[in-house]
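#onboarding

Welcome to the new folks! Below is a worked example of what a typical request in this channel looks like: someone posts a single protein sequence, and someone else replies with the predicted structure as tokens. Don't worry about understanding the tokens yet, we'll cover that in week two.

Example request:
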Amino acid sequence: MKSWSNYKETYRSEADIFDCVRAGDFKALVTLLSQQVDLDIDAKNHRGYSPLMLAVYHGEADCAEALLRCGADVNSTDAMNNTVLMAAAFKGKLEILQLLIQFGADTGRKNKSNMDTRDWALMFGREQALAYLNGLSPQVDQGSKVKSLLRFINLSLMMLKSRFKPG
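Example response:
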């Protein structure tokens, strides 16, 4: 590069979908989802992670739900065939695990090491996730359905608001 101005041109000026979910920037994600009709919500980054996988890894339930409601692949995998559900089991985020299963995540898929979601929960000592996956009823926040409904209403309102922005 010959000059600083040439170098600056190589930088992105706006956050992309990966930046939004990694940072948990729900508002920016909703704006992207509602304004970029050609946005590939199942795109993979340089490490093979989809935006949904990153949202799950970072514990961003709102971002994960927004992506799922917009049609993200609930069974997307990384380069090692680890599923989004395996990521939730690894992190032990029961709320996100339940959300993924609600959207049809396949608990029986195996990665390249022949491990499934239960194996991930067991290996990392995620007892509530393992109990849930085994059909038991771990102690879950009783308000989770209410929280889910409120998140959905909030997402819907934000998407409507960004579509009808004057300008």
